[in-house]
């Protein structure tokens, strides 16, 4: 049984054991484009990746399956070198603790995503970034574009174009880095991890 066959079995729920960690060579490879029209197996893999993210954000399922919470996952993190990413960014509760009108600020599976334009302004998360493939804390500002335009194929095989900014843009850039063999800490200033570049927009 191939890796993708195992992960896309109807009974299989992706968990932390399926996610490879830093040091595995797959994380440093440039992933292969996905053929369009999409194969059923690639569609199913994308859906399984999204299912993992939903489970990881659900306190009951996360505890049951032993998951770390995640907002994004790329196929190379599952040891499958294909250009597939899934992103799931929840909307916050309001100041009174009520659930948001829309559960997610971003819910998308992208095949062959490509950043086609970006802002000059750069941004970083004030608390730094984490990664499901990195089990240690890595401190420092991960410098990214503040706004991006991404072209990708959706699971229906349709070409899509989306503009993103702020945290949503950061999440998608993190996952696109994975399909290009780049880890988030590659973008941290090694000599001064918290160096403030001119015009850098910090997001809390």
Automatic annotation (TrEMBL):
<dbReference type="GO" id="GO:0006412">
    <property type="term" value="P:translation"/>
</dbReference>
<keyword id="KW-0479">Metal-binding</keyword>
<keyword id="KW-0408">Iron</keyword>
<protein>
    <recommendedName>
        <fullName>Peptide deformylase</fullName>
        <ecNumber>3.5.1.88</ecNumber>
    </recommendedName>
</protein>
<comment type="function">
    <text>Removes the formyl group from the N-terminal Met of newly synthesized proteins. Requires at least a dipeptide for an efficient rate of reaction. N-terminal L-methionine is a prerequisite for activity but the enzyme has broad specificity at other positions.</text>
</comment>
<keyword id="KW-0648">Protein biosynthesis</keyword>
<feature type="binding site">
    <location>
        <position position="174"/>
    </location>
    <ligand>
        <name>Fe cation</name>
    </ligand>
</feature>
<dbReference type="InterPro" id="IPR023635">
    <property type="entry name" value="Peptide_deformylase"/>
</dbReference>
<feature type="binding site">
    <location>
        <position position="131"/>
    </location>
    <ligand>
        <name>Fe cation</name>
    </ligand>
</feature>
<dbReference type="GO" id="GO:0042586">
    <property type="term" value="F:peptide deformylase activity"/>
</dbReference>
<feature type="active site">
    <location>
        <position position="175"/>
    </location>
</feature>
<dbReference type="GO" id="GO:0046872">
    <property type="term" value="F:metal ion binding"/>
</dbReference>
<feature type="binding site">
    <location>
        <position position="178"/>
    </location>
    <ligand>
        <name>Fe cation</name>
    </ligand>
</feature>
<keyword id="KW-0378">Hydrolase</keyword>
<dbReference type="Pfam" id="PF01327">
    <property type="entry name" value="Pep_deformylase"/>
</dbReference>
<comment type="similarity">
    <text>Belongs to the polypeptide deformylase family.</text>
</comment>
<dbReference type="InterPro" id="IPR036821">
    <property type="entry name" value="Peptide_deformylase_sf"/>
</dbReference>
């Amino acid at each position: 049984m191939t890796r993708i066959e195992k992960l896309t079995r109807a009974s299989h729920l992706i968990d932390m054991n399926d996610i490879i960690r830093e040091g595995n060579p797959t994380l440093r490879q440039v992933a292969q484009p996905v053929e369009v029209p999409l194969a059923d197996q690639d569609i199913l893999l994308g859906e399984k990746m999204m299912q993992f993210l939903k489970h990881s954000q659900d306190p009951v399922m996360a505890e049951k399956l032993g998951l770390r919470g995640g907002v994004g996952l790329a196929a190379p993190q599952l040891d499958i070198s294909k250009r597939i990413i899934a992103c799931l960014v929840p909307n916050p509760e309001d100041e009174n603790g009520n659930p948001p009108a829309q559960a997610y600020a971003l819910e998308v599976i992208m095949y062959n995503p490509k950043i086609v334009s970006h802002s000059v302004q750069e941004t970083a998360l004030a608390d730094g970034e984490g990664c499901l493939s990195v089990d240690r804390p890595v401190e420092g500002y991960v410098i990214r574009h503040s706004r991006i335009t991404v072209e990708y194929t959706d699971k229906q095989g349709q070409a899509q174009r989306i503009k993103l900014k702020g945290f949503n843009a950061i999440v998608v850039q993190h996952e696109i880095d994975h399909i290009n063999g780049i880890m988030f800490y590659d973008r941290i200033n090694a000599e001064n991890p918290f160096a403030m570049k001119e015009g850098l927009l910090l997001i809390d």
